[in-house]
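Issue 218. Parser rejects a valid record. Input:
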Amino acid sequence: MQKEMEERNIHLKEQMMFSELLERIEKRRRKIHRVFDGDREAAEGFGGLFSDLQEEIKRCEEESPEKRSPAFDPEALPKAGELLIEGERLCLLGMQEKDRKDYLEVEKDVSFFKEAFSDESFLAKIWEEFFRKNRAYYSIFNWDAVFLGYCGILNLQAKPWEMAIALKEKYQGQGIGPESLLLLMKALKRRTGERIFRGRVDADNEASISMMRKIGGKAHGISEFFLHGKKLQNYEKKNEYLVDRRLKELAEEFQVEPQELLGHSLEFWVELPE
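Output the parser choked on:
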């Protein structure tokens, strides 16, 4: 029953996000003036539209409490294909072109709109996003050289660094996520001296919450992720009925009102020892 409730809540939030994204880019779409001729061009046009949606999501992900001053110099980090760190059963390597297919498979697994992945222009745009300036992503491999997923830092100029991770579906639930993030933090601390890391997760994503706790994450309030202002207030009011006992317990831990967890992300901060 609890699993069904979690999946329903996540589905409702995905619907909200997609509706809001469509509304946000409507003005941009009106300026394009495309005339589609046949199914192929229509599909390509839609793929381009969804690329804009994806870009909006990435902008939300990169929001941070503070910008670094002076700016961080990424020269201390490994280049494409170079080893960041190795553990007992995993290793992290700088992402490289030959991993493209695997990366896109992971993105499709975690996407709420898989139909867009049939468009090549959309796939090219997604791949380019991984190499955007001030991002640092690393491929996760096991010792049989099997690609499991990726992890990394969303914005190297943010403070503290926010971690990201995504795994192929068949490798989820095996402890790979926590192990990968612990390796990531250990390696970055050794190379840069950074000790504090940030993780943001949805209040209904119990697996991600559990992962944050396993790597030492502590409650650090909440943050706006996608909706802001009046739209955020209206969304939380409209969906108050989704607040259950578990959300009330989380709200107490994060010292916020339960309905605020409906439209915000949970903030977990991890502080490594000196």
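Fixed in the parser; the record now loads. The first strand starts at residue 66 and ends at 67.
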